[in-house]
Write a structure and sequence with these properties.
Strand content: 15-25%
Low-confidence stretches: none
Oligomer: single chain
Number of strands: 9
CATH topology of the largest domain: Rossmann fold
Largest sheet: 6 strands, parallel
Helix content: 25-40%
Number of domains: 2
CATH class of the largest domain: Alpha Beta
Number of helices: 9
Order of helices and strands: EHEHEHEHHHEHEHHEEE
Radius of gyration: 19 Å
Bound molecules: adenosine monophosphate
Mean pLDDT: 97
Strand order of the largest sheet: 1-4-3-2-5-6
CATH architecture of the largest domain: 3-Layer(aba) Sandwich
Structural class: alpha/beta
Length: about 290
């Protein structure tokens, strides 16, 4: 496995593979890797001959009061995990190469960021769309793999690839969870022992919502009220949003028809947690 720090070397590595007719799967990450990231890498390896992973904590997607400086980092362990899973290269650029002095071109979408996480994290998706565009241009993959854990991010990347004519297949991978149901996240490290059990409430809301829908409930308001009630039963939780929305546009919906995305974001102490589930109406109710 090659560890590549410079943009030139990364581009040369990929161009060399592509001129030999080989395919490249790409998994962009911010590191502190866990089983969720590894599932993306396994999918990439299944779908292409070569796997490139990037590890880059992207400053452009953090707001001034967010956790850029404290975001967990563990480069040596991450590289070991990439090696074990059989990555061919890991790209580890420094921010001054990605955003050199004088940098001024950003990628912004007009609609999708104005929902869900984008409302409380106004620079987040601009930073994500910009860095992913740059990484696509540098790594030149045939396909790129993203997690459904960050559903809005995946929707934004799909739109970006369509709008900017990237010849890259975007592959989504289902959320990987801890045995007790908590969605895996690098930020779970921030949770204290006291907070950790409360984090299960997110998945409980999603399970209960799916059960309500299976029993014929289609009123989005009732589903949101149920979830808000569960979350607010914990005094340490502050709700950012609870939404039932269209899976493509992310516009809120009044009722679940066939299927709808339920998405949640909360603050548990100092930790921001997100989760989501596709609510699917049973066949008899469609
Ligand atoms: P991050 O390092 O948090 O930026 O995440 C890198 C990629 O891993 C993104 O595409 C995430 O959606 C994906 N990812 C993170 N956590 C999970 C998870 N629990 N299950 C599936 N994918 C995940």
């Amino acid at each position: 496995m090659q560890v590549i720090a410079t943009i030139d070397e990364m581009t040369r590595f990929s161009e060399n593979l592509r001129t030999r007719g080989q395919t490249i799967a790409f998994v962009p990450t911010m590191g502190y890797l866990h089983a969720g990231h590894l599932a993306l890498m396994a999918e990439g390896k299944k779908k292409a001959e070569n796997l490139v992973v990037s590890i880059f904590v992207n400053p452009a997607q953090f707001g001034p009061s967010e956790d850029f400086s404290t975001y967990p980092r563990a480069m040596e362990q991450d590289l070991e995990q990439c090696r074990n899973i059989g990555a061919d290269a890991v790209f580890t650029p420094v921010s001054t190469d990605i955003y050199p002095k004088g940098f001024q071109t950003y990628v912004e979408l007009e609609k999708l960021p104005h929902h869900l996480c984008g409302l409380s994290r106004p620079v987040f998706f601009k930073g994500v769309a910009t860095v992913v565009t740059k990484l696509f241009n540098i790594v030149k993959p045939n396909l790129a793999v993203f997690g459904e854990k960050d559903y809005q991010q995946l929707a934004i990347i799909r739109q970006l690839v369509t709008d900017l004519n990237f010849d890259i297949e975007i592959v989504g991978v289902p959320i990987v969870r801890e045995p007790d149901g908590l969605a895996k996240s690098s930020r779970n490290k921030y949770l204290s022992q006291q907070e950790r059990p409360h984090a299960l409430l997110l998945n409980r809301c999603l399970d209960t919502a799916q059960k309500m829908v299976e029993q014929g409930e289609t009123d989005a308001r009732k589903i949101v009220d149920m979830a808000t009630g569960i979350l607010l039963s914990c005094p340490d939780i502050r709700v950012d949003y609870v939404c039932v929305c269209d899976p493509v546009t992310l516009d809120g919906v009044d009722s679940v028809r066939k299927k709808a995305l339920m998405a949640l974001a909360v603050w548990l102490g100092k930790t921001r947690l997100i989760d989501n589930r596709m609510l699917v109406l049973p066949d008899r109710a469609k």
